[in-house]
Amino acid sequence: MVLNGVGYKYVHEKEFFMRRPMGSGDYLLLLVSTRAFFRLEEGEVVSEEQSFILYKKGTAQYYGSVEERYINDWVHFDLTEEEAERVEQMGIPFNRPIKCNDFLNLSNQVKKIYQETYSVNPYKNKTILLYLELLLIKLAESLCENNPKNNVPHYQKFSSLRMELYNKPEINWTMEEMAKRTFLSSSYFQHLYKQIFSVSPQNDLINARMERAQYLLTHTEYAVGLIARECGYKTEVHFMRQFKKITGVTPQTYRKNNKLS
């Protein structure tokens, strides 16, 4: 796998039209933020906002703007025959625009490749190839029929909320507050949360707090009372009781058995 070029958030005006009758000489992935037209073998089509197209090497490329501006990310790369076969096996279709269900995440992956390309990181070539491979994997993942991103409403809101839950378990989280952040009723919020993550929000909050507690016990000299507060518990007694229920040992014993040297 070889990266030939990358662009992030390139903006073109209304009359933009790319003509490559013989293709670009390599594979081309476009992530198009705006609506755009594509001239394909079966005719001309107009894509939705936040769509992608993966042009196979040797395929003619005709595309352009249909609005005031055209904005895209682009990645030119080459694949060996074995790598090309693997991409096809991943189920990523070639030469047709597809609405992308995880556009912002994919665009962020292109941004990482773009930033790494112009960095002075001594290992940047290896890093770029890993990012490129991850980009293709995430692209295939976004197309999976059983991916909850495609089938569950409000998935992105729930994913962002869960990330915050694990980053800030010390907050006084309530079901009402969580539901409010997703603009859903408390009962419907709890139903969807468990459907997506296979755990209730109440238990996931406990998991997040236990994960933080275990980290602090093994990586710091904090007193147990301080760790309890850092994990969102109002009392040390409540924290110790719940910690032992989940792990089977007291915080002190856990620290003794797992303390990093």
Q: Which residue ranges are poorly predicted, with pLDDT under 50 across at least 5 consecutive positions?
A: none
Count all strands and give the number.
9
Major sheet, described briefly?
Answer: 5 strands, antiparallel
Roughly what is the average pLDDT, rounded to an integer? 91
User: What's the total helix number?
Assistant: 11
Strand order of the largest sheet: 1-8-3-6-9
What share of residues is helical?
Answer: 40-55%
Radius of gyration: 24 Å
- The geometry reads as elongated
Structural class by helix and strand composition: alpha+beta
Give the N-to-C terminal Cα separation: 41 Å
What key phrases describe this protein's structure?
single chain, about 260 residues, alpha+beta, five-stranded antiparallel sheet, four-stranded antiparallel sheet, 9 strands, elongated
Explain this structure to me?
- The protein is α+β, with helices and mostly antiparallel strands and 261 residues long.
- The chain is built from eleven helices and nine strands.
- It has helices spanning 81-89, 103-117, 124-143, 148-151, 155-167, 175-181, 186-197, 201-219, 224-230, 236-247, 251-258, and strands at residues 2-13, 17-20, 27-32, 36-40, 43-47, 51-55, 61-65, 69-78, 98-99.
- A five-stranded antiparallel β-sheet has the order 1-8-3-6-9.
- Strand 4 and strand 5 form a beta hairpin.
- Helix 2 packs antiparallel against helix 3 (124-143) and helix 6 packs across helix 7.
- The longest helix is centred in the middle third of the chain and has 20 residues, at 124-143.
- The protein is elongated.
- It starts with a strand and ends with a helix.
- The mean pLDDT is 91.
